[in-house]
Amino acid sequence: MKANKINRTDWMGHLVMKINICPRVEVIRMRVLLLRYMAMTVAICCLLLCVACGMSNADSAGSPPRIALITPAGTGELAEAIRLGAEAAAKETGAELITVEAFPSEGLTYAPSNPDFTAGQGKVKQEHLQNGTYSLSEREQAQVDAVSLALEQGASALLIDPLSEKTLSDIIEKAQTKDANGVIIPVILLNDEFPVKGITSVISIDNVEAGRQAGQAMAVLLGGRGRIALLGPDPVNPVLINRELGIKESLAQYPDIHVEAQSVCSTRDACWQASKQLLDQQQVDGLIALQEPASLGVADELNRRTSENNGNKVKIVGFGSEQQQLEQLQEGRIQHLIVQNGFSAGYLGVNQAVARLNNQQVQARVTLETKLVSTDNMFWMDNQKLLFPFVQ
User: Fold this and answer.
1) How far apart are the C-alpha atoms of 153 and 318, rounded to whole Å?
2) Euclidean distance between CA atoms 303 and 314, whole angstroms
3) Which residues have a Cβ under 8 Å from the Cβ of 381 and sit 6 or more positions away?
4) Inter-CA distances, 30 with 8, 24, 35, 39, Å
5) Mean pLDDT for the stretch of residues 165-186
6) Position 19 pLDDT exceeds 80
7) Each residue of 313-356: pLDDT tens digit?
8) Which residue, 105, 109, 106, is CA-closest to 68?
9) What is the strand order of the sheet 123-124 is part of?
10) How confident is the model over 40-63, as pLDDT tens digits?
11) Quick one: three-class SS letters along the chain?
């Protein structure tokens, strides 16, 4: 009986304690739920904030950067390789590439690389000479006009292979005064080394080293003995000055090789006439052509002499990779060509422009590799990619 009283008393105490605890449990449970709700609310707010920031960034970024490639004066495989490289980089980086022809053949043409781009095609008319040729000043003005057209089309960066130091100076001046947001437009220089202030980056071969390669190749062809003439434009361009410097540095190691004064010519026909006169007047064992037209003109004259005299031993080393040069190389009329990678020039040019537009570090100078190509190695896989990037 006493035990029952104890148990009843314990049960009553337990019941009272449980009654007292239950409200506390409910309070704790409500607090937990409230905390969970607050955490979910904070998470949702953070998510919405991130989405809003992303939309804001997208709005601020706007359309992709528009980069203008002012094509080199004239046409050719190097210009085409540069364009293909620039297009490849534009696709990778999300930039838009527009090309403006800077040669007054049918006016200056504007063409976007993106087929979905809806901006209209633009042209800047140029007066034609009656004989179909153009003076240096006309071609220089064509490049400056091409830049003006590109800027009118909203270009935020320029890639250009300028004709002269004066042309580049005029282009730099336009680029520094045209940006709608007050930002100086980057100018990426391709294949030249003009000492003009305001250039963002220079992408070019080492022309002194390229000259050394040409001189060494000629020395090997002649067995270290003979007379050599240089052929090309009047070397006021730093590119040509450096090539000639490298050639003479290399040939200085061969006391039995003598270098004649340079014959000046700037077109294929003029270089054919210059080489004809040179070979008529004196004995020359080798000719180094400093530019594409010179090598083609020399090859034309040597081909004529070969057909007339049934043999010719004059060797040719040239610069360039134009289709006609490669044909002359394959036929043995040209023995060696110093070739640069135009595809890489265009590709790296766009990458440098995009980096500058994104406030990233930009290299002041990018040096491209050159290769010595001959009949023996022109069909090697690596050289095929270098010579024919448009078929890759």
Assistant:
1) 38
2) 11
3) none
4) 33, 10, 9, 14
5) 80
6) no
7) 899 999 988 888 888 888 888 999 999 888 899 999 999 999 99
8) 109
9) 123-124, 108-112, 96-100, 66-70, 157-160, 187-190, 201-205, 365-368
10) 555 454 445 544 444 434 333 467
11) CHHHHHHHHHHHHHHHHHHHHHHHHHHHHHHHHHHHHHHHHHHHHHHHHHHHHHHHHHHHHCCCCEEEEECCCCCCHHHHHHHHHHHHHHHHHCCEEEEECCCCCCCEEEEECCCCCCCCCCEECCCCCCCCCCCHHHHHHHHHHHHHHHHHCCCCEEEECCCCHHHHHHHHHHHCCCCCCCCCCCEEEECCCCCCCCCCEEEEECHHHHHHHHHHHHHHHCCCCEEEEEEECCCCCHHHHHHHHHHHHHHCCCCCEEECCCEECCCHHHHHHHHHHHHHHCCCCEEEECCHHHHHHHHHHHHHHHHHHCCCCCEEEEECCCHHHHHHHHCCCCCEEEEECHHHHHHHHHHHHHHHHCCCCCCCEEEECEEEEECCCCCCHHHHHHHCHHHC
- Tokens describing residue 322: 């134009």
| Residue 325, token pair as written in the block | 């040069």
Tokens of 170: 């005029």
Q: Which amino acid, one-letter code, is at 362? A: V
